[in-house]
Amino acid sequence: MEWLLAAAVAAIMFLWVKVFLLKKSAREIADSFEEKLKTDTNTLIDISSRDKDMRHLADSINVRLKELRQEHLQYHQGNTELKNAITNISHDIRTPLTAIYGYLDMIQQTNDPEKQAKYIAIMKDRAELMKHLTEELFRYSVIIADETDMETEDVFVNQVLAESISSFYPALSEKGITPQITITEKRIIRNVNRAALSRVFSNLLNNAVKYSDGDLQIALSDAGEITFSNTAKELSAVEVEQLFDRFYTVEAAHHSTGLGLSIARSLVKRMGGSIHAAYREGKLIIQITMQ
C-alpha cells in the first residue's frame, strides 16, 4: 500500500513539475512574442523548455513572425515608395501646369497674333505632356488592379516585334537612332496576349528612346529570347537594378512617371514569362523570355 502511495506522490510531483515547466515556457513565449512585436528586431523566440510540443509552438510562432516582418517591410517600403512617387508625380504635373499659367498671363499681356500663337503652341505641348503622364498612371493602375486571367492566343512573335519597331521609327529617328535588328527566320509562336506583348515591346522601345546614347540593338533568337540593348553611359549598375521598380526614374529620364518598365514586367509575368535587366560594359541589356 505504501508503495502505491509513494508512486502516486511521485506521479503528482512529476505532473506538477511538468505543468510548472509548461507554464514557464508559455510565459516565455508570451513575453518574448510581445517584445518582438514592440521592437524592430530579427531575433526569434527561444525557450528554455525541451518539451517538443512547446518548442513546436515556438517554431510555429517564429514562422509567423518572419512572415509578419516581411509584410511589414514590404508595407514600409511601399509606403515610402508611394510618398516619393506622389512627390515626383506632383512635381512632374505641376511643372507644365505652372508653365501653362505663365503663358496664359503672357497672352493676356500682348495683342501680337504671332506671339499669342507661339504661346498657345507651347501651352498645347505642356498640356500633351500632362495628358501623357496621367494616362500612364491610369494604365498602370488598371493593369495592377486587374486580377482576372489574361486572355491568350497563339501569337507570331516575329510579326508583333517587327510591327512595334516600325511604329517607333519616327521617335527613334528623331533621336538619331538607327536600330540594328536581328530577327530569326524561324517562326516563334507563343501563347500570349497579343495586345499585352505589343505594349511590352512599346514600353521597351520607349525606354530606349529615353536612355540610349544613340544606338539600339534588337534581337529575336531561334529560342524565342527577345533582347533590347543600347549604350547608356548615364546609367549605373545600381540604377539598372531599380529600373523595374514602380515610379523609379533616373536623372536622364525627363517627363516620365517611371512606370513603363514596371508595366512591362507586370505584363510579362502575367503571361508566364520572365524579364530582367543587366548592365555590362556601358550597355543596358533587357531580355525577355516567353514560355
Structure description:
This protein is α+β, with helices and mostly antiparallel strands and 291 residues long. It contains eight helices and seven strands, in the order αααβααββαββααββ. The strands form two sheets. The protein has a five-stranded mixed β-sheet. Strand 6 and strand 7 (283-289) form a beta hairpin. Helix 2 (52-108) packs antiparallel against helix 3 (113-145) and helix 6 runs antiparallel to helix 8. It is elongated and about 120 Å long. The N and C termini lie far apart (79 Å).
Keywords:
single chain; 291 residues; alpha+beta; five-stranded mixed β-sheet; two-stranded antiparallel ribbon
- Number of E strands: 7
Structural class: alpha+beta
Rg over C-alpha atoms, rounded to the nearest angstrom: 30 Å
Distance between the termini: 79 Å
Could you state the order of secondary-structure elements as H and E? Answer: HHHEHHEEHEEHHEE
How would you name the oligomeric state of the polypeptide chains in this document? single chain
Mean pLDDT equals: 79
The helical percent reads 55-70%
Shape: elongated
- In terms of DSSP E residues, the strand content is 5-15%
Low-confidence stretches: 246-257
Strand order of the largest sheet: 2-4-5-7-6
Characterize the largest beta sheet: strand count, sense, and whether it forms a barrel: 5 strands, mixed
Number of helices: 8
Question: What is shown here, in short?
Answer:
This protein is an alpha+beta fold.
